[in-house]
Structure formats: structure tokens, C-alpha cells
User: What shape does this take?
Amino acid sequence: MIIRSAEFKISSPSLKLCPKTKLPEYAFIGRSNVGKSSLINMLVNRTHLAKTSVKPGKTRLINYFLINGNWYMVDLPGYGYASASKAEITKWGNLIDEYLMKQKNLSYLFVLVDSRLKPQKIDIDFINNLGFNRIPFVIVSTKIDKISKLQITNHIKLYNKELEKTWDELPIHLLSSSKTSQGRNEILNLIENTNNEWHF
Ligand SMILES: Nc1nc2c(ncn2[C@@H]2O[C@H](COP(=O)(O)OP(=O)(O)OP(=O)(O)O)[C@@H](O)[C@H]2O)c(=O)[nH]1
Ligand SMILES: [Mg+2]
Assistant: This one.
């Protein structure tokens, strides 16, 4: 898919204030600092559309970006940011839950996990909950420029082993690097194919 335009729309503190449209949307979630905002920038070929930071806890609201005038990318706050206050963690958690449970236009949720880490309980619990709630998702392992091919293979094997405990059919698992743009075509193809099936 060719990205012709990418426009920031709104940073919303609640689902109520999010755009009310029938357009398909694709949201990015995962632990703080996993690379959600960087991945969005990489996909749309823009360095500063979504705000990134070396410090976790940068994205705190629901950020909407209108792409090619007919679908949305949604940048969500991260989960599992230990240094945030209890009140903030609860607020972000509620915001994420509200979005995931009620946003009907959500076509796919991209769940980002760090390719350098073995499966983390917080990510596996989150993924399993998506299954219970029937939320369509794919897993994306980020920052693969930082590890070797062998480590990538082992990482995927460990995830498959963990997910086989609860899933009959394994979820789609893609790889990405915001530094080398690896994974860009696969992710954009998935979005394009899903958009083509979307009934407006
Ligand atoms: N080497 C490398 N670094 C990355 C990659 N993706 C993100 N980073 C770095 O990781 C840090 C966090 O990236 P963000 O995109 O801000 O992460 P986030 O998940 O949006 O973080 P929060 O908004 O705080 O939840 C930044 O320093 C990025 O430059 C990647 O694919 N490769
Ligand atoms: Mg972010």
C-alpha cells in the first residue's frame, strides 16, 4: 500500500471524544517503550508524526491518525510502566479497556512485544484476555535490528510454546524494526487486505 497522507487528528482522554466514523482503525498496544509510536512513524514514513521517547510512558492518551483519508492508526498508551503512579496506571488501564471493549471500528489490534525478551507474563496475560474478549489481533515483535537471526527464531519458538497452552490456532506473529523498516510491507499488506474487506 502506498501511504499518500498521514494526518494527526486528536489526542483523546476518553473514547467519547474519539472520532465518530465508520472507517476501519488499527491500534498499537504493548508495554511502555516497546516501540508503538516508532512503528507508526515507520509505517507512514514520517519521523515525528507520533511522539516517541527513550523514556517509557510517553504516550498517555488515545492518538488518532487518519491515513490516506480512509482509515485510522491509533497510538495507545503502554501498559506495565512500573514508574508511573498508581493513579496514572489505573487511568491508562481504564482508558485502554474502554477503547478495546467498546470501539466497534477496531479492525486489528497490533500487540507489540520486545523481540529481545522471552515471553513476559504481562504480555501473555494481555494476549489471552484478547482471546476471551474476541478482539482481533496480531503480535508484532519489535526492535529486531537489535538481535541475531538465531535469537529471532528462538524468540518465536518460545512464544509459540507459551501460546500453544491456550490457543488451538496460533495468532499471526510478525517481526518489525523501526530502524530498518523490516516488517513494513507485511503490516501494510495486512491492513490493506483488511480494509478491502471492510463494509462501510
Ligand atoms: N533499535 C530500535 N529502537 C527502537 C525501535 N522501535 C523503537 N525504538 C526505540 O525505543 C524507544 C521507545 O520507542 P517509542 O516508540 O516511544 O515506544 P512506545 O511503545 O510508543 O512508548 P510509550 O509511548 O512510552 O508507551 C525509543 O528510544 C525508540 O527510538 C526499533 O525497531 N529498533
Ligand atoms: Mg508511544
Remarks:
- Strands lie at 6-12, 25-30, 62-67, 71-75, 106-114, 137-142, 173-175.
- The first strand starts at residue 6 and ends at 12.
- Helices lie at 36-44, 86-102, 121-132, 149-163, 184-197.
- Residues 32-38, 52-54, 56-59, 77-78, 142-143, 145-146, 177-179 surround guanosine-5'-triphosphate (ligand 1) (CB under 6 Å).
